Amino acid sequence: MAETIISTKDLHLYYGQNEALKGINLTLNEGEITALIGPSGCGKSTFLRCLNRMNDLIPNVTTTGSVLYKEQDIFGPKTDIVDLRKEIGMVFQQPNPFPFSVYENITYGLKLKGIKDKEQLDQIVEESLKAASVWDDVKDKLHASALNLSGGQQQRVCIARVLAVDPAIILLDEPTSALDPVSSGKIENTLLELKGKYTMVIVTHNMSQASRISDKTAFFLNGDLIEFNKTKNIFLEPQEKQTDDYISGRFG
Ligand SMILES: Nc1ncnc2c1ncn2[C@@H]1O[C@H](COP(=O)(O)OP(=O)(O)OP(=O)(O)O)[C@@H](O)[C@H]1O
Predict the structure, then answer these.
(1) How far is the CA of 87 from the centre of ligand 1 (A)?
(2) What number is the ipTM of this complex?
(3) pTM above 0.80, yes or no
């Protein structure tokens, strides 16, 4: 039986008066990839950002309900946000490496964690870049600016940066939508290789991407979670008419 790693209970989120999430109950299992799908504006990114309290950075946001990570409510007083975001890392739509070298991008979070030993840093840099399948591309330019890499390479460096601090969960908000098909394919392969070791949640508009890489799929519509099931079931035998309409392109 797969173990639950994070679950939301009656999660509501309001931007001012606008209710963007309307009571979401969702349980994610360790080591699985879950795809969040649904038309634009239905709350996928908002939900994703709840999982590591990224919405705290947005003014005028009210959240009710709970997000239990390893059985503790992340909105509770015991949560250290910096630690939480190391354990639950995030990769964004636009590759956003820091304007430093590749090496410094990867060691940034490690130095914040107090790791200073050069040998240890070198080792984690190599391991993280290898795990993100970008080592061969960058091993000869570790000290050149990450901004000089291609978009796809930058995105894989961003994944390596998240991996370096040893997260449990990786949140990915449309990580390939700004990339060409070859780079997107490389990211997908990277995610498949990381599956099992990390729990991943990916927002995607690309139905074939969701069906290729995810174990489970959650379909959102207007702030509601309409259907959540094994990806195969969602795509082959959706239980709800709205899911069927969406995946067969009748709206959205
Ligand atoms: N920072 C914000 N301030 C105010 N309203 C917001 C903010 N971010 C999102 N919203 C609103 O919340 C709702 C859900 O948006 P969200 O970005 O979560 O949807 P989405 O499903 O991820 O959309 P997309 O697929 O276009 O990225 C929308 O009505 C959106 O306008």
Answers:
(1) 24
(2) 0.97
(3) yes
